[in-house]
């Protein structure tokens, strides 16, 4: 079982990445990304996909034209884990 973040660790994660919001129902973090057009949005998704595959940790996400909505949680932990923090950090580094 993957270790779940405790409240202090989760709050530290949210403080580090202010663009993300905590979803208490899922114990997940979410963020919406807006790009100039679909091509930019999809390019971002392609970059995230490569990172996710390397990390073996995948987002729950949706795309509408230039918008990408990403939710991060760890299914194996049934909540937030260090893996989500690492993926959020890698996603932020793309911006
Ligand atoms: N991605 N978000 C998320 N949560 C997981 O638990 C997870 C994953 N990607 C791959 C993965 N687990 C595998 O390690 C397991 O399905 C074996």
Automatic annotation (TrEMBL):
It catalyses: (4aS,6R)-4a-hydroxy-L-erythro-5,6,7,8-tetrahydrobiopterin = (6R)-L-erythro-6,7-dihydrobiopterin + H2O. Keywords: Lyase. It comes from the Bacteria. InterPro entries: PCD_sf, Pterin_deHydtase. It is an enzyme of class 4 (lyase). One of its GO terms (molecular function) is 4-alpha-hydroxytetrahydrobiopterin dehydratase activity. Its EC number is 4.2.1.96. GO terms for biological process: tetrahydrobiopterin biosynthetic process. It holds the Pfam family Pterin_4a. PANTHER family: PTERIN-4-ALPHA-CARBINOLAMINE DEHYDRATASE (PTHR12599). Belongs to the pterin-4-alpha-carbinolamine dehydratase family. This is Putative pterin-4-alpha-carbinolamine dehydratase. It comes from Sphingopyxis fribergensis.
């Amino acid at each position: 079982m993957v270790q779940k973040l405790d409240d202090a660790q989760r709050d530290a994660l949210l403080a580090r990445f202010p663009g993300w919001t905590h979803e208490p129902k899922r114990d997940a973090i979410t963020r919406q990304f807006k790009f100039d057009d679909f091509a930019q949005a999809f390019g971002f998704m392609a970059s995230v996909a490569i990172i996710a595959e390397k990390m073996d940790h995948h987002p729950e996400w949706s795309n509408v034209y230039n918008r990408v909505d990403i939710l991060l949680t760890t299914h194996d932990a049934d909540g937030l884990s260090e893996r989500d923090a690492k993926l959020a950090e890698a996603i932020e580094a793309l911006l």
